[in-house]
Amino acid sequence: MTSPKDLESLQSEITSLAKRQDDLETIVLEIMERHEAAQARAKELSAALEDLESKAADAAARRDAVLREIDAEAESVRTERAEAVAAIPADLLKLYEKLREQQGGVGAAQLYQRRCEGCRLELNITEVNEVRAAAPDAVVRCENCRRILVRTPKSGL
Ligand SMILES: [Zn+2]
Hints:
2 domains, single chain
C-alpha cells in the first residue's frame, strides 16, 4: 500500500498535470483560432489575386486589340502614302522630304484663310498676290517657314 505521504505527492502531481493539460488545451485552442483566421485571410487574398489576374488578362486583351487596330491603321496609312507618293514628281517629293526633316515632320501645310497652317503666320498682301498669280500647278512656299503651301478653296485667295 501507498503511504499517506506518497498519496499526497501523487495528488499534487495529478493536480499539476491537470493544470498543465488545461494550459496546453488553451494554447491549442488559440493556435486553432489563429490557423482559422490565417486560412480565411489566405482565402481572401487568393480571391483578390484571382480578381487581379482576371483584370490584368482583360487589360492585356484590350491592349492587344488596340495594338492590332493601330497596326492595321498604320498599314493602311502606309499604303495610302505609297499611292500618293507615286503620283508626285520626284523633285517635288525630294523637296517635301527635305522640308519635312527640317520642319519637325511637316513639310507641307494648308494655306487657310491666307494663313500658313504650318507656322500659323498670315501672309502679307504681297505674298497673297504672288500666290494668287501663281499657276495652279506651281509649287508655292511660305515665305516665313519655307513649307510648301497647299492651296484649297478655303485659302482665302
Ligand atoms: Zn509657314
